[in-house]
Amino acid sequence: MTDSFFLPDPDIPDPDDAFSSAPLRLTIDLGALADNWRDMARRSGKARAASVVKADAYGVGIEDAGQTLYHAGARDFFVAVPEEGVTLRPHAPEARIFVLSGVWPGTEHLFFEHDLVPVIASEEQLAFWMATVSEHGDHPCALHVDTGFNRLGLPLEEALHLAEDVSRPASFSPVLVLSHLACADDPASPMNRQQLEAFRSLSAAFEGIESSLAASAGTFLGSDYHFDLTRPGIALYGGEAVKGVANPMRPVVTAEARILQIREAKKGQVVSYGASHALSRDSRLAIVAAGYADGYLRNLSGHGVALRQTGLAGAQGFIAGHKVPIVGRITMDMTIFDVTDLPPDAIQAGDYIELFGTNMPVDDVARAAGTIGYELLTGLGLRYERRYLDAE
Ligand SMILES: *Cc1c(COP(=O)(O)O)cnc(C)c1O
């Protein structure tokens, strides 16, 4: 089919409105974000719920997300690196901001100037922090202890020893002791109880100091895991925290891309790089302006990506009330969807297809690539035009 020449539709909104003309766009529902935080705060029972806003608030945007969460009532925030804390500070003026990667020589001034709390995770960092506070004056810190995850943290034995060490400097008075669960997304895992028992001994050893064990998934494990502060991240952004159960959170991010062209192709013809997909019927194909440079992972392709071993089908998009499959390989800037099963006049070039969001759960899309919603959200490229829906 030759593409028909079409005149602008009078319904097309103001061309100056960047959102309505963008090839790629994100709608970020700050009301849903605030609701999700309130929901996690309620699920945290007697504990306070913090907000984890590392990695640009999981792609949502740390400034808008931070401000929204602060207005919803969050007063404890976690970031990965000091620069994220610096960006967040004006949007969360009275909040405590914890920096999970701790403090390193050359960054210490940021902790004092922007009132950030380093999360100390090793003997070396502790020694450096002690030297720093003796020079600059007292400043709160937190302590990250490993209880079996073997990622970051002071070994449990060292931490217990530190708690009992009467000769430890008086200036060492953490405001929070935390640890992280390895398997909280699987409530049946025996790791959860083991880490809980280890953390209980730690929390008792640091009596009088607040303690925190649960991230999103851990919060769902119940009140034993809540201690004084929960640390939800993914659940705030609408992602799935616990495997195999319905996700109760509201979706926050909707990613859409424009259909650049609709083409008719014949049975037997092939699609995209590597000619890896042959059409089994005469087909209508929508060529869409999103590719792996936009975080729409190449592994979401249905066929012809050798490394993808998680299932035979690729991801689906959502348009005109229907789910439509990807055909052929995803390319850097474009993806091809099979729209043959849609009514012929249901869609046209210029329409938007939802990559994930309110109709296509981000985790369903992620699963098609053998990954998790976290990776899709934090990997969104720079080309999306963003629209924030206000919380109020
Ligand atoms: C990322 C992170 C969190 C948040 O985890 P979610 O699974 O996104 O809720 C909490 N605590 C620590 C230490 C983290 O690294």
TrEMBL record:
<protein>
    <recommendedName>
        <fullName>Alanine racemase</fullName>
        <ecNumber>5.1.1.1</ecNumber>
    </recommendedName>
</protein>
<feature type="active site" description="Proton acceptor; specific for L-alanine">
    <location>
        <position position="273"/>
    </location>
</feature>
<dbReference type="InterPro" id="IPR001608">
    <property type="entry name" value="Ala_racemase_N"/>
</dbReference>
<dbReference type="InterPro" id="IPR000821">
    <property type="entry name" value="Ala_racemase"/>
</dbReference>
<comment type="function">
    <text>Catalyzes the interconversion of L-alanine and D-alanine. May also act on other amino acids.</text>
</comment>
<dbReference type="InterPro" id="IPR009006">
    <property type="entry name" value="Ala_racemase/Decarboxylase_C"/>
</dbReference>
<feature type="active site" description="Proton acceptor; specific for D-alanine">
    <location>
        <position position="54"/>
    </location>
</feature>
<feature type="domain" description="Alanine racemase C-terminal">
    <location>
        <begin position="252"/>
        <end position="389"/>
    </location>
</feature>
<keyword id="KW-0413">Isomerase</keyword>
<dbReference type="Pfam" id="PF00842">
    <property type="entry name" value="Ala_racemase_C"/>
</dbReference>
<feature type="binding site">
    <location>
        <position position="332"/>
    </location>
    <ligand>
        <name>substrate</name>
    </ligand>
</feature>
<comment type="similarity">
    <text>Belongs to the alanine racemase family.</text>
</comment>
<feature type="binding site">
    <location>
        <position position="151"/>
    </location>
    <ligand>
        <name>substrate</name>
    </ligand>
</feature>
<dbReference type="InterPro" id="IPR029066">
    <property type="entry name" value="PLP-binding_barrel"/>
</dbReference>
<dbReference type="GO" id="GO:0008784">
    <property type="term" value="F:alanine racemase activity"/>
</dbReference>
<comment type="pathway">
    <text>Amino-acid biosynthesis; D-alanine biosynthesis; D-alanine from L-alanine: step 1/1.</text>
</comment>
<dbReference type="InterPro" id="IPR011079">
    <property type="entry name" value="Ala_racemase_C"/>
</dbReference>
<feature type="modified residue" description="N6-(pyridoxal phosphate)lysine">
    <location>
        <position position="54"/>
    </location>
</feature>
<keyword id="KW-0663">Pyridoxal phosphate</keyword>
<dbReference type="Pfam" id="PF01168">
    <property type="entry name" value="Ala_racemase_N"/>
</dbReference>
